[in-house]
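[Q] Does anyone have a clean C-alpha cell version of this?
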Amino acid sequence: MVQNMERKSLSNAMKVVLDTLEDGRSLSISQLSKKAHLNRRTVEKTLELLEIAQNHFSEKKLEITPLKHAKIIQLSKKTGLLSLPENLQKLIIKTVYYPAPSREEEILVYAYNRETFNTEKAITMQKSELVKKLIKQGQLIENEKGKIYLSDEGKIVAEGSLSLYPELKNLKAKELLPA
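[A] Here you go.
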C-alpha cells in the first residue's frame, strides 16, 4: 500500500495523473498510483473519467465564458480542419499547401521504394544538383563505391511524403529524369 497519501480533489487528481503520464512512458495502474502518490482506486476513477472525456471531446469542445457573477457553459461541435477525418485533413493540406511533391521528395521516395536503407542496398543514382543537395543535407548517403542510400532522416522524410502523396508508391526511375 502507498504511504503518505493525502486526499485530493478530483480535479487535482486528474492534473497529477496527467502530469505523471506526461513523459510518455507506459505504466500499470499500480505503478501510476505509486509514482503519482495517489490511491489506486483514485487513479482508476480518474482514468475512467479521462477516457470518457477524451472520447467525448474528440468531436466536441467545451466553452466556458465568464461573466460578472456567473459562467456560461456551452458544449459545441468542433469546427475547422481538426474536426475532419485525418484523410480529409491530409487532402486539404495537400491541395492548399503542397499540391505536388517536390523533386527532392520524389528522389527520396524513389530510394525508399527500392529499400535503400543501408550501404549494402545502395543504388547507382545520377549525381544531379538535387542529389548532391540531399547528400549535403544528410538525407542521402554516398558509400565508398559511389552508390546512394537513405539516411534515417531521409527515410522519415520519404515516409511522410508517401503518406501525403500515396501516388508516389509506384514512382519509376524514368519519371525522375530532369524535365
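[Q] Thanks! Anything notable?
[A] The longest strand covers residues 60-66.
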